[in-house]
Design brief:
By secondary structure, the protein is of the alpha/beta class. It has nine helices and seven strands; from the N terminus they run E-H-E-H-E-H-E-H-E-H-H-E-H-H-H-E. Helices cover about 50% and strands about 15% of the residues. Strand 2, helix 2 and strand 3 form a beta-alpha-beta unit. Helix 1 crosses helix 9, helix 3 packs parallel to helix 4 and helix 4 runs parallel beside helix 6. The protein starts with 6 loop residues before the first strand and ends in a 7-residue tail after the last strand. Bound molecules: acetoacetyl-coenzyme A. GO terms for molecular function: acetoacetyl-CoA reductase activity.
């Protein structure tokens, strides 16, 4: 066994859930590289992490662009080594009733939340096959499972992620690579703070545990799935939603 740290690439790593995932993986001994789209934010984030005792790598990618992601992967390989844990966490919302949704709201959410998964997985797959080991963990959503008023775009992209998970899991099952989905419920991050307050409160009232989730509620599942010992779990979709959706 090499003593070299495993490389974990977390897209959207500087965001709410992303930061929690990066910290949990770093604590578990991974060299973490956070993917980012906003350089100023990422540099400040990296500094903050340093002050908190975390040595995080960062790498730019426009996750909607195949070429930009390929370039980021090459950059990560050159500076750190090949990625064996890929966490597809980058995602946006652009909510609106379909009646009012424009094509750009549709396109931006599908490309950021779903095209991104194709782009990053393609970038990492050959290296994982070479190492005969890999973990791809797709951060989907409760709303990809149950649907949500105002989220035809987001629900479609998030459901699509799990379809991707199941297909790729079958392709790689004999190659030491697992592919799984985590479906978070409503997690207390900037993303849900964008929801109008009265609507947000009515959503909170629908969560049996009586609170929004925390990034750590998701991050601990990522660490669990990334572990070498989790090799029998593949093609799964694991909920962490405070009981809001049981199925
Ligand atoms: N079921 C059925 N109909 C509903 C409804 C519901 N739950 N909620 C609202 N409606 C109806 C309203 O009654 C209204 O109908 P009429 O026009 O016939 O009166 C219509 O839908 C429009 O409702 P709004 O007035 O709320 O419309 P709006 O345009 O002002 O707002 C919206 C639309 C922006 C989508 C707003 O409803 C909203 O923000 N909803 C919450 C969406 C949400 O949960 N987003 C999650 C973001 S966080 C995230 O995505 C992370 C994650 O993974 C969980």
């Amino acid at each position: 066994m090499s003593m070299q740290k495993k490389i974990a690439w977390v897209t959207g790593g500087t965001g709410g859930i992303g930061s929690g995932i990066c910290q949990a993986l770093a604590k578990a001994g991974y060299q973490v590289v956070a993917g980012y789209s906003n350089e100023a934010k990422a540099k400040a984030w990296q500094q903050e992490q340093k002050e908190a005792g975390f040595d995080m790598g960062i790498s730019y990618a426009d996750v909607t662009s195949f070429d930009s992601v390929a370039q980021s992967y090459a950059d990560i390989c050159a500076r750190f080594g090949p990625v064996t844990v890929l966490v597809n966490n980058a995602g946006i919302t652009a909510d609106g009733m379909l009646k009012k949704m424009d094509a750009e709201q549709w396109r931006s959410v599908i490309s950021t939340n779903l095209d991104s998964v194709f782009n990053t997985s393609k970038a990492c797959l050959d290296g994982m096959l070479e190492q005969q080991f890999g973990r791809i963990i797709n951060i989907s959503s409760i709303n990809g499972e149950k649907g949500q008023v105002g989220q035809t775009n987001y629900s479609a992209a998030k459901a699509g992620m799990h379809g991707f998970t199941k297909a790729l899991a079958q392709e790689t099952a004999r190659k030491g690579i697992t592919v799984n989905t985590i479906s978070p419920g409503y997690i207390a991050t900037d993303m849900i703070m964008k929801i109008r307050e009265d609507i947000r409160e009515s959503i909170k009232a629908q969560i049996p545990v009586g609170r929004f989730g925390e990034p750590e509620d998701i991050a601990r599942l990522v660490v669990f799935l990334a572990d070498e010992a989790s090799s029998f779990i593949t093609g799964a979709n694991i909920d962490a939603n405070g009981g809001q959706f049981m199925h």
